[in-house]
């Protein structure tokens, strides 16, 4: 069963709730890089929401680079590591090294740096509208200010 619950207490459009949940599932490792996601029709049927709502969430995630869709094959979690070129990898490594070095200069141990980074990442995820996963394998989507909402945006149509 796909771990997703609709939060009816929020004005966040359903497709955004689904999109945020999928991002959480990818980032938490529930879906591994290269994993095939359920078909749009299959997921819509499984979680009892409209096909167009699931499609809109999938298209948004494809556009943002989380997923890739191949006609006739399906939708897959995109393996960004395999697509990073060497220069980009060096840039990220340099930024991370500079960050760790700056923290070490402040007197933090490597374990302290790791704890600080983990805490910051959790805060950033929360700020994006995701809370840590609950014991039952689900996460509650919290309200996120997505700007002025129209009736069309709220219904996901």
TrEMBL record:
Keywords: DNA-binding, Transcription, Transcription regulation
PROSITE patterns: HTH_GNTR
Keyword field contains Glycosyltransferase: no
Stored Pfam families: GntR
Gene3D superfamilies the UniProt entry points to: Winged helix-like DNA-binding domain superfamily/Winged helix DNA-binding domain
SUPFAM superfamilies: Winged helix' DNA-binding domain
Molecular function per GO: DNA binding; DNA-binding transcription factor activity
Transcription regulation in keyword set: yes
SMART domains xref list: HTH_GNTR (SM00345)
Domain (HTH gntR-type) ranges: 12-80
Name the record gives this protein: GntR family transcriptional regulator
């Amino acid at each position: 069963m796909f771990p997703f619950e609709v939060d009816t207490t929020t004005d966040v459009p359903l497709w955004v709730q689904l999109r945020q949940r999928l991002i959480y599932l990818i980032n938490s490792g529930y879906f591994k890089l290269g994993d095939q996601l359920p078909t749009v029709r299959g997921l819509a049927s499984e979680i009892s929401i409209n096909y167009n709502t699931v499609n809109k969430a999938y298209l948004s995630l494809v556009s943002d680079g989380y997923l890739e869709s191949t006609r006739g094959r399906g939708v897959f979690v995109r393996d960004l590591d395999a697509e990073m070129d060497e220069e980009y990898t060096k840039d990220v490594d340099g930024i991370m090294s500079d960050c760790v070095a700056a923290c070490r200069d402040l007197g933090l141990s490597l374990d302290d740096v790791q704890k600080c980074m983990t805490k910051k990442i959790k805060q950033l995820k929360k700020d994006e509208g995701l809370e840590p996963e609950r014991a039952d394998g689900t996460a509650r989507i919290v309200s996120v200010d997505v700007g002025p909402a129209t009736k069309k945006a709220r219904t996901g149509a």
